[in-house]
Amino acid sequence: MEQQTALLFLEQYLQQHLPLTVAMQVQAQAYDGQSLQLFAPLAVNHNDKGTAFAGSLSSLATVCGWCLVMLWTKEHYSQACQVAVATAQIDYKKPTSSDFIAIAKLPSVEDLAQVQQSLNRKKRARISIAIEIHDQQGVTVQQVADYAIWFV
User: Fold this and answer.
1) Helix, strand or coil for residue 67?
2) DSSP line for 75-143
3) Which residue in 17, 35, 90, 103 has a CA-CA distance of 20 to 30 Å to 10?
4) Which residues are 145's β-sheet partners?
5) Do 98 and 137 contact (CB within 8 A), yes or no?
6) 59-94: b (≥16 Cβ within 10 Å) or e
7) Residues 51-64: tens digit of each pLDDT
8) Cα(44)–Cα(54) distance, integer angstroms
9) Dist CA 147 CA 129 (whole Å)
10) For 4-29, what is the mean pLDDT?
11) pLDDT class for 1, splitting at 50, 70, 90?
12) Does the global pTM surpass 0.85?
């Protein structure tokens, strides 16, 4: 899927189906088939200390991984798939003190081949996605999340 097409699809999908992302003012910024970047402004996602609210950070990380898996399934399967986060482990490395970007990356080609085998054989699979959140100072949050995928 071409980058602009993917980003437009995500923006529309998020606005229609995930109201939290509208309140967070999430914007799809970049997609290259292997990674996805979502942006959120600090101005509407801050806490009482003036840094990013942990709930906004974890939400953006989880949504970014979810969107990446959704795009991957759309590119590889004509049959509709559902995606849901199953587990997530998050590390808050340091306060996020400016606008922030979540970057989710697909796993290795070998891991993706195993996911495809499971989907083709069992009609369901799990995929592990690494997500980082960056502000102007660098990496502030790291999350690894497993997403369940199944055919509708």
Assistant:
1) helix
2) HH-SS-EEEEEEEEEEEE-S---S-EEEEEE---HHHHHHHHHHHHHHSEEEEEEEEEEEETTEEEEEE
3) 90
4) 88, 129
5) yes
6) bbbbbbbbbbbbbbbeeeeeeebebebeebebeeee
7) 999 999 999 999 99
8) 13
9) 8
10) 96
11) confident
12) yes
For 15, the 3-state DSSP assignment is helix
Mean residue pLDDT of the chain comes to 97
Structure tokens, 9:
């699809």
Read off the tokens for 66: 């979810």
Rounded CA separation 141/152 (Å):
33
For the record, the structure tokens of 77 come out as 């399967």
Could you tell me the two tokens for 31?
């997609």
What 3-state DSSP class applies to 145? strand
What pLDDT digit, counting tens, does each position of 62-83 carry? Answer: 999 999 999 999 999 999 999 9
Gap between the Cα atoms of 11 and 29, Å rounded: 10
